[in-house]
Design goal:
Shape: globular
Mean pLDDT: 82
Strand order of the largest sheet: 1-2
Number of domains: 1
Radius of gyration: 14 Å
Helix content: 10-25%
Length: 91
């Protein structure tokens, strides 16, 4: 959660139902829909991108460097800068 704003920045996704156990982070901004009946969350990301995402473990601190790698991997805009889109390295 963001300092003082109580913003949820990422959800931890456990991929054990798809591949060998691995946990990855996904931003709530990338959620398309939630199906409460099935306890499923649908995201606007290709399954292969999630599979190849940098692994997240409790041993690693969530640093700006890790977030940058994550956003570049998913080709998503970063949330922490006001740089105009045409000057960014991520979409």
């Amino acid at each position: 959660m963001g300092g003082g704003t109580w913003t949820i920045r990422y959800l931890v996704v456990d991929t054990r139902n798809w591949w060998p156990r691995k946990k990855v982070l996904v931003s709530p901004q990338w959620i398309e829909r939630v199906r409460w009946v099935d306890s499923k969350i649908y995201v606007d990301l290709p399954l292969e991108a999630i599979k190849e995402s940098p692994e997240h473990t409790l041993e690693f601190l969530l640093t700006r460097g890790y977030e940058t790698i994550l956003h570049i991997h998913y080709s998503r805009k970063v949330y922490w800068t006001d740089i105009p889109d045409e000057n960014r390295t991520t979409k």
